[in-house]
Amino acid sequence: MSSPPSAQAWDLPRVGARPSFPAYVAEVWRRRDFIVTMARFRMRAGLESNRLGIAWVVLRPILNACIYGLIFGLLQAGNRPPDYPAYVVVGVFLFEFFQGCFNDGSKAISGNRNLVQSLAFPRMTLPLAATVERFLQFLIMLVVLIPILMVFGHFPSWHWLVMIPLVACFTLFNAGIALITARLTVHVADLTQLLPFISRILFYTSGVLFAVDRILANHPAVLRAYDFYPLYQVLEIARHHLIGGSDYPSYYWGVLALSSILVFFGGAVFFWRAEERYGRD
Amino acid sequence: MDATEPRVPVVVVDDLHVKYRVFASGKAAGNARSGLLNMTRGIREVHALKGVSFTAYENETIGVIGSNGSGKSTLMRALTGLTPPAAGAVYARSRPNLLGVGAALLPNLSGSRNIVLGGLAMGFTREEVETLKGDIAAFAELGDSIDLPMRTYSSGMQARLKFSIASARSHDILIVDEALAVGDKRFRKRSEARIRELATEAGTIFLVSHSMSSIRDTCDRTIWINQGVLQMDGPTDEVVTAYEGVRR
Question: Could you tell me which residue ranges the ABC transporter domain spans (chain B) (predicted)?
Fold first, then answer.
């Protein structure tokens, strides 16, 4: 696109032009206060509208774990993994973080139309704020997880520190997912209807509720695919160190770290490429 | 206008087209049969701006007039870059800022939290926001309502708060979209005063209004948009007279 003569002569930049990726990232970094403040405000506002407030952050996954644990515990009968209650609680609590980022990310742009249309700022801050909000909730859930696991006879040990690098990878992965769903729903509004199903498919397939190697023992090819399923890697690593679940091959860490970095940077570039598109009706 | 002094272009609008895609059948409701398999169903394109071009120079105050739905607000939003053009482009020395009237920013958050977030989004640092917060809240005159969620505000209160947030910073290129009609009489007076204050700081101002008297008072040049095309561009007196002649 060539500028008209006087715009060229006076060296006027095009309005709303997407900055280069490094410049864009610098611009996002400059708004880090906005990201964190938005996450904190939204979390508080969401909780203030309920009588039980912050308790819901924990109550929701606990209720989920109870219902799913009961139903799938009965259905699986003998195929249940050992220590089933703790198995399900760890799975449901961790998956809740992923699901939250997946869902809130998809609404980060499409649900904030007024904000996007009235102020100019790098849009990437919105899905990132959604991720930070979910991260803060996840930290609360992790604190509550400690007494719950103690009830089931698992006491804190040095092994639990593995959760620090694990949560770091997981957060990076989820932020990337939020960036991807944020752009997708802008392009295809119909996806808003479809995404809950996708997140449910991931919930049922990632081994939140059953031991994959027991249920799928007759399908070695499918089992092989699970070795490269980051959500499964997160759950397996967490369960092994928190509740002494079955051991995992050490390359699971490589798969998880690599896919987290890929999803995060891939998601960031994917989101940035449509920066000029956000806000259009 | 002094012809010998070279005029500095600040905003160049070059053959600007804006299209909206709307998912709506556009037919009478009873006529919407057999649509499910038809994949193009309901995607209608509204061609809101059809090739608008003009150049705005430094220190100009430009009035923008036109009937409802003529594309004035679309043009202004395209100037800020908030609405991407379908073809053509807008070039500007710095990003034009819109002082507009609209719905709440984040409806579930209180007014004071909206102030903080709006300020941070505009690029203020946390310290700057802390010092500005009081002024913005005082200017919006919301009293105790400042702590209530913004969705509980009346449209006048929302408009006042938005105006106060957006006008907290001085702008090089400023667009005022019907803001002169914001709120009650008292607030209108104060917002007009604030706009004049900003106008002395700003390099170039666009004023979108239906009030011909305020256009005549403040603008030396006026642009008339009609059905997405630039109908007329010239000295305010001529354009407004022609516009009023058609409207009558």
Answer: 34-248
